[in-house]
Amino acid sequence: xxxxxxxxxxxxxxxxxxxxxxxxxxxxxxxxxxxxxxxxxxxxxxxxxxxxxxxxxxxxxxxxxxxxxxxxxxxxxxxxxxxxxxxxxxxxxxxxxxxxxxxxxxxxxxxxxxxxxxxxxxxxxxxxxxxxxxxxxxxxxxxxxxxxxxxxxxxxxxxxxxxxxxxxxxxxxxxxxxxxxxxxxxxxxxxxxxxxxxxxxxxxxxxxxxxxxxxxxxxxxxxxxxxxxxxxxxxxxxxxxxxxxxxxxxxxxxxxxxxxxxxxxxxxx
Length: 269
Prior knowledge:
The chain is mostly helical and 269 residues long. The chain has one domain (2-264). The chain has helices at 2-16, 23-33, 43-48, 50-60, 62-65, 74-107, 111-131, 145-156, 165-175, 180-205, 212-239, 246-264. The protein starts with a helix and ends in a 5-residue tail after the last helix.
């Protein structure tokens, strides 16, 4: 049963990690409806499974991420290094907040918090898209260090359950004048150090026992999340070139209402 749950959760993770709709909200609903009280409902599993999704980003964008490519000119490799420096700067806020507030945020996670953040950010996406702010940044190369830090501050807010790391980061980048494509790409790249860091924290602070069965369950979930993430990322990058995020905003509002109703009905805690 744990393997089957892990496959299902891997699919959910692979889809919701990259779309700005909150993987936390979906994981909560799935685990509650499955009445899951096993390893696949532990903090360690729910965070470390994200490494599978991160590896999908590394695979798909390896050419853009690798700063030692022989296929690039010296200037292009230098631009890649500059991009990594900006990612490092943008990671600082989430890194600091994650270290100090990680346990507290885990302790306050409940249906009301998740539903509230789903709805708030859903409304924000709709309002930002309707305002149609002029695009000032159409390339990651054009993102300044100051803008990178500000995007990082938006990402740091995603420590609140139900916010969606990708949702907060993309929304922040768009508010700061980035195009949808640049916002999505920078969000993907920024996830690499953040998710590796969060996973390391969860592994080091895990108070349970990682048995052979649990490791097999975790690897299964990561593998499924990796495969599904490849499709999810490809879909989102094609989607944002032709469509706005308004649909995701309405989806978040609808999901938030469902989570809230389930909480009131006692279906989730």
